[in-house]
């Protein structure tokens, strides 16, 4: 009988050297390192003649290939994201320089608009179309001072967009800075540690709060709502009216909500929505702000719509438990007023990026898309009555074998959700780290871990597992992991910025007090025995 693929890897961290470069910190250098590690794998395989009869070696070599492929793909993904970001920055700078030039030449706003309009027509050939984009709004934008600011483009060239020139969606720009005890400064003294004159000192970042300041007015708001709730539906319609009539904003909603609004009144014809997944993928280039109406689940849902950068989210609480929803819906006008004015305190919530790597994948086309989670990825036994058996590696060092109901890999935002119920610690959402929390481990000594943000975790279902495992992502999208399949998970480059009611720490503490009645106990009475 052929030995299992996992048995061929030393579970105590003495595995093959080609596994040791799985940490993508920097996309390009990682691509190189991973390219080399993949090459090393290839060379190793070529140098080691494989006997067709030797099942063990064949399986092992396939495992190496699959892992090397996954690592390369992760690094390539990151490198291409960085390249995209650099491209956006370049365009931004170019446009700003052009606008500054125009200002220097002393052109009147009318002249300036004319120039930009001409450019818009030219550029709009590259824009994907979104529904309900009317000329009327296009005019609004030009009179709202478009010439004084940047225009960001998608750069997509689909035939539909070419056929119908669409308006340019302008994103408001903003700046994030650290604020320390009322002092707002753009500059850190130092980020992590300082090594001045040989003395190592830690950075005093713990008391700092991230602040978002608009550099131009936000113009487009996406409203996402919890389904099947009459109160949410009523509030949504009211909010859309208010944002349009009082703030003159462009508004996007989901197709379902669009239907609900139109069934109420044709007044809502001006609202935008989208038709397909492709348009959803470009939403982040158009939307300045996302408003959620619902509970934590609606925030998770909104975050899951953005597979890349996420615009700032303003979460209104209309659920029973609000750990990520600090704003009260009764005061939505005041809240939105102050958010639109800025500056606002922000919690940058980290996400995890998860890859499912199939044992059967023979080439990279079979690799599944990464899934981003804001709370956690759970690997459990599903409906099986057998113990799960999961081998876990952190940066290729063997961590442990989970035998129990399963394992939760959670962000710090998710630390108050499923991980908490499974005995994990509650962690401030601004702490960068990955929680490693077992679910009902069949062991007296298995305690939860918190790992640093930069690690890559691999959870593998051994070949000798009695049953498959199941992965679920923020409680959704269950995927089966068969024997030999693995889940690889690391910190994603795109966090979710959520607006704070007061600040990150105050909101977090309020949520655990109000939501969980944390450490509620009657105060001890004054009378009684005491130290003299
Ligand atoms: N035993 C458990 O506690 C358990 C079991 C399954 C899923 N969940 C959680 O439910 C989440 C999905 O939420 P949903 O609203 O889509 O499903 P849902 O409607 O089943 O609600 C789950 C509950 O978890 C709360 N919740 C979600 N994220 C939270 C967070 N970051 N901090 C504190 N509480 C949070 C929600 O407010 C809700 O009350 C999953 O990500 C998982 O964390 C918890
Ligand atoms: N826009 C949406 N489209 C589809 N499903 C959504 C949307 N928003 C939320 N959901 C789903 O609806 C469910 C409930 O959402 P949410 O947690 O916001 O409300 P809730 O259950 O009333 O809140 P709480 O759990 O705090 O009482 C979640 O599973 C979530 O994934």
TrEMBL record:
Region (Disordered): 1-32
Homology family: Belongs to the NAD kinase family.
Biological process (GO), any one: NADP+ biosynthetic process
Species in which this protein is naturally found: Populus alba
Classification via Pfam families: NAD_kinase, NAD_kinase_C
Top-level class of the enzyme under EC nomenclature: transferase
One of the record's GO molecular function terms: ATP binding
PANTHER family, per the entry: NAD KINASE
Keywords: ATP-binding, Coiled coil, Kinase, NAD, NADP, Nucleotide-binding, Transferase
Compositional bias annotation for Low complexity: 18-31
Biased composition (Polar residues): 1-11
Enzyme Commission number(s) of this protein: 2.7.1.23
Reaction catalyzed: NAD(+) + ATP = ADP + NADP(+) + H(+)
Annotated InterPro entries: ATP-NAD_kinase_N, ATP-NAD_kinase_PpnK-typ_C, NAD/diacylglycerol_kinase_sf, NADK
Full protein name: NAD(+) kinase
Lineage of producing organism: Eukaryota, Viridiplantae, Streptophyta, Embryophyta, Tracheophyta
Coiled coil: 71-105
Keyword Coiled coil annotated: yes
